[in-house]
């Protein structure tokens, strides 16, 4: 374990938790591989509210989980300061424009931001990433250069008011802007959450996924670039993969019942007290 994770040694871990997490990861990865049928698909472990020890266990498992998804900047900053530097963090939460610069400039191993839905947010991420690519922070203590930040444009494919994302016709202009005007960002693809009813229906292909595939194909042709798809969660990731997803976001199947924010705050408090007493 690296020095950055030394504090995790003080967290008591139930051996049964170790076995459960490793078994869950092996099962989910096998299902991903079967659905992908030889095609590369990234499994992102959605780890919001999960204690750093759980993430460390998946990272240290025989399957070596590298990709983790977080929804809140402060929680991501906390975990990234504790866990290994080669973890690939995905930001998957609601993106606030005023936090984009810090998100892009403070986390070296931030792999992608999957929830870009406005030009303002893209420009703020560009500004934050450019500040470290061109400034003093280009090469850090570990001698690793900062990389261009991968981003996905979030598309509201279900038309639900409760969902974030641009409307499908508006995705073209935003993707063009990122591709042509944000040199510190890399347009990786499109992302959607879709409606719960469509994800649970087994009568036909998920219409939200079909919409995202269609929009992606149009934009890829227009820009002349190969774009990925981030779609599919615990209830529907296999169908999403069969329909072309290159990035799936799975939480409950890996970690079990998610901790509440209150429970997570209490765990942080107890961990801090333990580290202080060392």
Automatic annotation (TrEMBL):
<dbReference type="InterPro" id="IPR001608">
    <property type="entry name" value="Ala_racemase_N"/>
</dbReference>
<feature type="compositionally biased region" description="Basic and acidic residues">
    <location>
        <begin position="260"/>
        <end position="278"/>
    </location>
</feature>
<comment type="similarity">
    <text>Belongs to the pyridoxal phosphate-binding protein YggS/PROSC family.</text>
</comment>
<dbReference type="Pfam" id="PF01168">
    <property type="entry name" value="Ala_racemase_N"/>
</dbReference>
<feature type="domain" description="Alanine racemase N-terminal">
    <location>
        <begin position="20"/>
        <end position="257"/>
    </location>
</feature>
<feature type="modified residue" description="N6-(pyridoxal phosphate)lysine">
    <location>
        <position position="48"/>
    </location>
</feature>
<dbReference type="InterPro" id="IPR029066">
    <property type="entry name" value="PLP-binding_barrel"/>
</dbReference>
<keyword id="KW-0663">Pyridoxal phosphate</keyword>
<dbReference type="InterPro" id="IPR011078">
    <property type="entry name" value="PyrdxlP_homeostasis"/>
</dbReference>
<comment type="function">
    <text>Pyridoxal 5'-phosphate (PLP)-binding protein, which may be involved in intracellular homeostatic regulation of pyridoxal 5'-phosphate (PLP), the active form of vitamin B6.</text>
</comment>
<protein>
    <recommendedName>
        <fullName>Pyridoxal phosphate homeostasis protein</fullName>
    </recommendedName>
</protein>
<feature type="region of interest" description="Disordered">
    <location>
        <begin position="259"/>
        <end position="278"/>
    </location>
</feature>
<dbReference type="GO" id="GO:0030170">
    <property type="term" value="F:pyridoxal phosphate binding"/>
</dbReference>
